[in-house]
Amino acid sequence: MSNAANPPGDASAPRSPSSSAAPHSSDVSHSPHSTAVHDDRGRLGMWLFVSTEILLFGGLFLLYSAYRWRHHADFHAASMLLDRVFGTTNTIVLITSSLFVVLSIHWLRERRLGLAKLFLGLTLLCGLTFLVIKGFEWGHKFESGLYPNAPHLLSLPFGEILYFGLYFSMTGLHAIHVIAGMTVFGFVFRGMSKGTVTAERPIFLENVGLFWHLVDIIWIFLFPLFYLIS
Amino acid sequence: MSDITDAAHGSRAGADAVPYGEGPYFRPTSIKPGIVGWLTTTNHKRIGILYLTAIGTFFSIAVIFGLLMRIEEMFPGPQIMDARTFDALFTLHGIIQIFLVVIPGIPTIFGNFSLPTLIGANDMAFPRLNLFSWYLFMTGAAIAATSVFINGGAPDTGWTFYVPFSLKTSVDVPMATFAVFILGMSSILTGINIVSTVHMLRAPGMKFSRMPLSVWGLYSTAWVQILATPIIGITMLLIVVERLFGIGVFDPTKGGDPLLYQHLFWIYSHPAVYIMILPAMGIMSDLFPVFSRKNIFGYKMIAFSSLAIASVGSLVWGHHMYVNGQSDTAGVVFSLLTFLVAVPSAIKVINWLATMYKGSIQIEAPFLYALSFVFLFTIGGLSGLLLGGLSTDVQLHDTYFVVAHFHYIIFGGTGFGIFAALYYWFPKMTGKMYAKRFAIIAWLVFFVGFNIFYFPYFVMGWEGMPRRYFDYPVKFADLQFVSSIGAYIMVAGIALVFGNLIRGARKGEPAPANPWQGATLEWTLPSPAPLENWETPPIITKGPYEFGLDGKANGSASGHSPATEGRDGPYEFGSDGNANGSASGHSPATEGRDGPFEFGAKEVEK
Amino acid sequence: MSDSANTSEADATRVDHGGQSSHGSPRFYVAIWAALVCLTALTVTAASWDLGWIAILVVLAIAATKSILVLLGFMHLWWEDKLVIQLLIPIVLVTLTIFIGLTYTDILYR
C-alpha cells in the first residue's frame, strides 16, 4: 500500500505546472483551472467510513445468504408477498436521487449556488419519497400480520419467518441510513446558504454525497434480493 | 464527516514546505485552562492522556474483579460469593479488559500520543473526530457500567454473549451489547484516523520504508479496526433487535442458527485479538533496536509480517468453534489457516532476538517489559498451536488451558507491551523520569506473580478444569491455591508499577529530551512534548533506527551527520558494536580496514 | 443545460483539478443514470425468466454492474488518483467474500 511518499506527494500526475510550488501537499492542491481546493484528507476519511458501512451491511448479507441457501423455496414464497411495483419505484427514486446529488455537486463547483441548492432539495425530495413508499410497504406488512413475532408470521415455515426477520432488519437499517443522510444533507444545505459550503470548499457536500451513493448501492442489492427471488 | 483542521502537514520537500503554522487548514490549537481544556482538547497528546487515564481506571477495576474471582477460587466451595455473582464477574472482567482496555489500549493511547510524533506530524488527520472517538469510548463505558446496576444486574453470559442464552437470560443484555456497539464505533473512527494520518501526514522524506515499525504496527491494526469491527457492530445490533423484536435470525425456535451468531461474533473477535497484539509487537520492534544499540534485524520482513498477521489472522475465526457444531470441513480449513498465521508471529520473535544478538544490551524498565513480552507471548503462542489442532482442541476447549493461553498472549503480550510503551514514552509524556531501580523491582514482582498465577492454569486445563466455573473438584485444589497466591503477588506487583509511574509523574527527576538515545523522531522533541510538535516539518533523510558513531542517537530529523551520511537503511550500526552503519560504510572508525570483523577501540557507549 | 467546465462527456479528461482531477459533465451523469434505469428494468424482467440456479448469478451480476457504475461514475472512482482509495473497494469486497466464503465451509457441509 505504498504511497508515492517521496515528496512531492502528487508527483505521479504533473497537474499544476503554473502553481506556486512544484511539490504539492498530498492533501491540498490548488488548480489554476478552478479555485476549488481538493481535500484529499477528508475524502480518504469518508471513503474509509463508507467501507465500514459496506461491511456493516455485509454481516446481514452473510445471514441472508446462509438462510436463503437453506430455505430457498420459502424465501421465494415470501418474496411474492412484496410489491414489485413499489420496490422498482423505490429503486428508480434512489438512483435518481444519486443523480441529483452529483448534479448538485457539479453546479456547486460551477459556482451556480442556486442550481446546487435546487438539486440538493430534489435529492431530499427523493429521499422523502423513498421513505414514504417504504412506510406504506411496512404498514401493509404489519396489517397482514407479517411483522416479527406476529402470531401469523410464526405459523409460517421457518424460511418465511427468517425472510421477514431479515427484511425488516435490512430495510430498517437501510432506512435509518437514508434518514441520517437526509439529516446531514440538511446541514449541508444550511452550509450552502451560510457560505461555508462553496465552490472552493465543496468537501462537505461531496462527502455526504459519497455516503448517499453508498445508501443507493445498498438498495441496488437489497431490491433484487428481497423483491425478485425467482 | 470531513475534518480539515489544525496544522497543515508537510509532504512537501524542504524549501517549499509550508510551516506548520500556516496553510489553508491551520487552526491554532488553543488550550483552555483546567479540566475544560482537557475535555475540549483536540490535541493528540492530550487525547492520548485522556485515554490513558480512562483505560488505566478501567483496567484497575477489572483487575479487582479478577482478584475477587481468584479469592473465590482459592478453595473449593463457595467462599465469598455465589455462582450468579461469579458469572457476572467473569463477564464484566472480560468485557472491560477486552473492549475497554486491550482493544483500544495501544491504538488510542499511543496511536494518539506517539504516532504523529513518530512520523513528523503535528496532529492526527482528524483531530475533532479524535475527540469524538474518546467521547464515544466513554459513552460506551458508561452504558456498560449502567447495565451492571439496572434491569436485573450485570450480564452473566460471558463477554461472548452466545445465543440462545443471551436471548433468554433475564438481565439487560441489549444494554450491554449496545455498549459494545458504541465502543466499536469508537474503534472504527480511531482506525480511520490512524490510516488517514499515516497516508496523509508523514513528514517530507518519511517513506513507508523509513517509518518506525511501531507505525507499521499501528497501521496494520487500523486496517483490521476498519474492516472487522463493523461485523461486531451489526452482530451486537442484531442481539438488541432479537431481544426487543424477536426477528428470529438467531433463535432456533424460529429457524435461526445459533452457530451463525458465533460465526459473526468471531469474524470480528478473532481479528480483534490481532488488534490487541499487532501494535504491541510494533512497539517491541521499536524497543529492541534502541536497547540493543543495534539495527533491527529484518525490517522489511517485520513490516510485511504485520500486514500478513492482519490479513491471515482474519481468516481463522472458526478455531473458536471446533466443538460447537461446525462442520468438519470448516474445522479442517480453519485449523490449517490457524497454523499458517503462527508463522509471521514467529518471524517477528526471531527477528527481535536476532536484533539482540551481538548488540549492546541496556537493562532498563522498558526493555525488561519487552523481554517479558517475548517470553510470555512465545509461551502463549505455542499453547495456541495445541488449541489450533482439531483433535487436541477437543480436550482443551473451554478449559483453563484456553484461559492460560489468552492471558499469556494478551496480558503477557499486549499488557506487558502497554507497560513497556508507558515506561518508554513516559519521559516524553511527563517530562520526568520514574525511579528506575524501583521500576525494575516492581517489574520483577509483577512478572513472577504473573507466572505463578497463570502457569498452573495450563496444567489445570490439561487435566480438565473447565473455564467460567464457579466451583471445582477437590483434585484441583492445590493448583488453585498456588494460582491464587500468584495472583496476589501479581496484583501487588501491578500496584507497585502504578505507584512507580504515578510517583514518577508527580515527583520524578526532570528527564532529558532523549533519555534512551532513540533515533526515531519523537526523541527530537523536548520532554515533555510541546503542544505544537514542530514549527516546520522535519525533513527525513534516514531510517528510524540509525545510531551514530558514538552510540548516541543521531536522529533522523534533519540528520546530516557524517557518521550516517549516504546511507539508506534504517538501523545501521557499526562493526565495532557501536552504531556506525554498514550500508555504504565509509566510517572513520573502519576506514582503511579490509576485513569485516576487525574491531577497533570501542567508542564511548553512550 | 450546457456545461461550461468540460467538453467531453463520456470520458473524463484529466482536467487539472488537483487531487481528484476532473469530473463528468451533466450529460455524462445523466447517461449513467439512464444506464442504471435500464439495468433496473433488465433485472426486473429477468426475474420472470426461468433460469434455475443461474438466476442468482444473473441478479448479482446486474447488481454488481449497477454498483460499479455508481462507484466509478457518481462516486468518482474513475478519476480517483489516490491509490489507497482505488484499492479500497476491492479490498472490502475480498474481505466480505472471505467472510461469507469461509462461513460456507461450515454451512455447506454440516
Q: How far apart are the first and last residues' alpha carbons of chain B, in Å?
A: 48 Å
Helix content of chain B: 55-70%
Strand content bin of chain B: under 5%
Q: Give the total of beta strands of chain B.
A: 2
CATH superfamily of chain A: Cytochrome c oxidase, subunit III, four-helix bundle
Largest interface summary: A-C, 65 and 58 residues
Strand residue percentage of chain A: under 5%
Shape of chain A: elongated
List its salient traits:
heterotrimer, A: 230 residues, mainly alpha, Four Helix Bundle (Hemerythrin (Met), subunit A), two-stranded antiparallel sheet, 7 helices, 2 strands, 2% strand, elongated, disordered N terminus, B: 606 residues, Cytochrome C Oxidase, Chain A, 17 helices, globular, disordered C terminus
Describe the fold and architecture.
The complex is a heterotrimer of chains A (230), B (606) and C (110). By secondary structure, chain A is mainly alpha-helical. Chain A contains seven helices and two strands. In chain A, 70% of the residues lie in helices and 2% in strands. The two termini of chain A are 42 Å apart. Chain B contains 17 helices and two strands. In chain B, helix 9 (213-245) runs antiparallel to helix 10 and helix 11 runs antiparallel to helix 12 (328-356). Chain B is globular, with a radius of gyration of 25 Å. With 606 residues, chain B is mainly α. Chain B has helices at 34-39, 44-73, 83-102, 105-113, 115-119, 127-149, 165-168, 173-200, 213-245, 258-292, 299-312, 328-356, 365-388, 390-396, 400-430, 436-462, 477-507, and strands at residues 432-433, 509-510. In chain B, 61% of the residues are buried. Chain C is mainly alpha-helical and 110 residues long. Chain C contains three helices and no strands. Chain C is flat. Mean pLDDT of chain C is 83; it is low at 1-20. Chains A and C meet through strand 2, helix 1, helix 3 and helix 7 of A and helix 1, helix 2 and helix 3 of C.
Topology readout:
The complex is a heterotrimer of chains A (230), B (606) and C (110).
Chain A: E1 28-29, E2 38-39, H1 40-70, H2 72-79, H3 84-109, H4 113-143, H5 151-154, H6 158-194, H7 203-227
Antiparallel strand pairs in A: 1-2
Helix pairs in contact in A: 1-2, 1-6, 1-7, 2-6, 3-4, 3-7, 4-6, 6-7
Chain B: H1 34-39, H2 44-73, H3 83-102, H4 105-113, H5 115-119, H6 127-149, H7 165-168, H8 173-200, H9 213-245, H10 258-292, H11 299-312, H12 328-356, H13 365-388, H14 390-396, H15 400-430, E1 432-433, H16 436-462, H17 477-507, E2 509-510
Antiparallel strand pairs in B: 1-2
Helix pairs in contact in B: 2-3, 2-4, 2-6, 2-17, 4-8, 4-15, 6-8, 8-9, 9-10, 9-11, 10-11, 10-12, 10-13, 10-15, 11-12, 12-13, 13-15, 13-16, 15-16, 16-17
Chain C: H1 26-46, H2 54-74, H3 83-107
Helix pairs in contact in C: 1-2
